[in-house]
Every structure is written in C-alpha cells, then in structure tokens.
Fold this sequence. Notes:
The protein is α/β, with parallel strands linked by helices.
Amino acid sequence: MSRLLLNCDIGESFGNWTMGLDAEVMPFIDCANVACGFHAGDPSIMRKTVSLAFKHGVQVGAHPAYQDLQGFGRRSMNYTPQEIQDLLHYQIGALDGICRVQGGRVSYVKPHGAMYNDMMANPAQLRAVIQAVAAYGDLPLMLLATRDNSAAQAVGDEYGVTLWFRSLCRSRLRQQGPSGFPPVARRGAPRQRHYRAAGPDHFPWRGIGRQRRQPVGLAGRYLVRAWRQHQLGGRGAAYPPSVAYSMKPRIEVVAIDCLMVRLFEVIAEANMQWMLAATQRLRAEFGTALVDLVPSYTTLMVHYDLRELTPTQARELIDLALTDLQPQAQGSGQCHVLPVWYDLSVGPELTLLSQRSGLTVEDVIRRHSAHEYQVFALGFAPGFAFMGLVDESLATPRLNTPRKRVAAGSVGIAERQTAAYPVVSPGGWNLIGRTPAKLFDRERDGYSLMQPGDTVRFAPVSHTEFVNLGGDDTPLEALA
C-alpha cells in the first residue's frame, strides 16, 4: 500500500552562510535531497546534513547540479552528454563517500535547478542523466510526472533505472518540451500557483503566494512535490500600496491538460473584479469540457478534458473568453463578518505588531478590524482563505520558526495578508486573535465558508461573547 513521503531539498548552506531550517525540518521528512557542492553546500555542510538525516532515519538523495555556485544552479549551461555524466558521477560519488563513512549510502538521485529543467526539456539530456545513474549503480531517478510517462519510462527501462515520477504543486511549467517532457519554469520566470497531481490517484494539492520547494511524494513511482512558503521580503514588498491597472493576459502551459492564464504581474485588490469576470467567462466558454478552474492572486488555472478539447482549442476558448473583458461590479461576492476575540492568550503576536508599528495593542486591533478584506484565493489547508490587504503599518513577516500547532480559528497576519486557520495545523503567521466561526465544513456546499471574490470583516468580541459563540479559549501555549 502506497503512503505519502515528504521529500525536501536540503543542505543548501555554504560556509558561514546559512540557508533554510535543516535541523528543524529533518525530523518531519522521509527523503532529503542533499546539495552536492556545485549549486550549494560544501564538504562540511554535506557531512552535517547526512549525519542529521541518518540520525532521523531519513533517506539521503543526491541533488546534483550544474557547476554554478554563484547562480545557485539556476542558469542553463551547454554541456555535452558525456560532460553531464561526469558532473553527475562526481557529485553522486562525493555524497556517497560521505554517506559510506557514516555507515549509509545514497538512496536515489534528483537533479537540481537548470540541470533538472534541461533534463525535462531535452530527451537527449534525460538519456544522458539516466545513463549516468545506471552506470553509477542501482539508484532510482526522480523526475517530473506527466499524463503520459511512457517516453521517459522507456528510456529508464532501456538502462534498467527505476524512475520515481512526481507531480509539482505551486510551480509553473513552461512551454511543452519535445517528446512529451514538460520542463519546469526557471527561477525568475513568473510562477503559477496550482497544479493537480498527475499520479495514478490524481491527488488535488492547492496553494498560493510566493513559494519555494519541499516535495511531498507517494512511495513508489509517483511523488507529489509541495512547496514551503518563502518570506515575501520587506514589509509589504509584494503588495505595492498603489498599482495602476494593467492587464496583459498570457497563457502558459502547466500540463498536458492544464493552462495557466496570467492576468496580472502584481498583487492588488483591484485585480479581483477582473479575475471574477474572467472566471465567469471561462466557465461559460468551456462548459462541460472544464474539469477545474482555480483562481489565485494574479492567475487562473484552467484544467480541461482532453477528450473534449485539444490544447489548441482550449487556447482559442481562453482568447475568446478574455475578448472585451470587463470587471464585475463591486460586491458581487458574499460579505462575511467574523467575530474575533483579540487577546494575548490566543494572539501572542499582538505585542510584536504593536512594537513594530509603534501603535498601542488597541490601535492594532482597531486597524485590523476596520478594513473589509478581499478573499484572493484558497490554499495551504482546506478552507484557508488568503485575504488582503492589511494596513501597511501592520505588515509583518512570517515567524522565522513556524509553530508546530496552531489552533483552529486562529487569526493571523503575514506581510500584508491576513487569514484565519480553519483547522488545527502547523503555521508561521503572526497570531493576533481567534474566531469561533466554522471555516471549513464537509457538509457545507463548497466546503469552505469563504470563496475567492468574497469579502471579510473582523468584528472584535469580548471573551464572554467568544465562548458563548462556541469558541475554544484554550491558551496557545496549552496547545503546543
């Protein structure tokens, strides 16, 4: 019976420079893709990472890359097939040697960055990578799953290499490569925010925001790669306070039956009325051929039925839907009023926001509850609604170390986003209160209380009112 495996890119520090939370992440993963020194890592970092992995019973995988430390292995380079094999043998061998000294071995290979992109785009390079893995020994190779993996599988079978196919969540795919190999978008290219798994059970995984790495996978040949949210940078950096409207639709390939419609390049509240109008038009144009339509801050993912439409026909329908598009009227979605008990026992970062903003705690609460927020997208957890934009004075980065357990109903802020946790889960947002509202209900039509296009107001309530409404007032520290 298959089970989900958490598979993480790791060991990417270098010298005195630290990247990631390796020690904190390692106890929670099953497979570690360890950098081999060419894009990140060094001999000491590799040794420490391997030691940490073995300590927690985590499989070690080689994460080889082009020799591009300065570019983090994200720049494509022109290597011959033989040079590709030499690069792989050098890096796998180095990591395997460190593993052997500590009583273990490398368990699989997963190329990094541009090497991975080029491998997925170029069948000749994929063949070179598979040849290198076959020559080294009995190691599986991890690569991207498509609806039809037969081309890659045939090459793997030819050289006796086991292939672990995985499906990307929250990472844009570029134009379809030759022979059915869809390459991953390079860093710096615009990214999409959703992808439906291409494994045998088609697990749906959704997410939004600026993200980076951390794969989740199925044991065996299908792995699903989820991405850990990356901090957005300076206060409100991802959300300009004023953005002139500029919609320049662009259609991007996500998978063989998925297209990403990128409407905007920046996040703004004004986007949503156009997104809703585009959603309505696309549903009407695609009709029964539409499998799923997933909105986000700046994009719409269109998943269509290949039995009814060809990719060319799908593009034509998108173009038709967006012709002479006009925004929907304001207030077309539902407005939800969520009661919130703002208190330090359930919102410990109230003090932090007060210190950062120079406001009193009362003023922080007043400013957070004064605004009517736009629901941009759902993601991270069932019913988790990403809302914005909070007052710039309250914009605060995520916590450096996420909490392992956040209570259902917890209201938080991350940069200029705000949200309420629908279920108990880990989380790194700054908590400022708690709502008794039931945000996710499997008996509710649509499951989630809030949907993209809705608006939300937070209404402060007393402790007594919160409890009378069914709220759980267990202090946060008691939940840890």
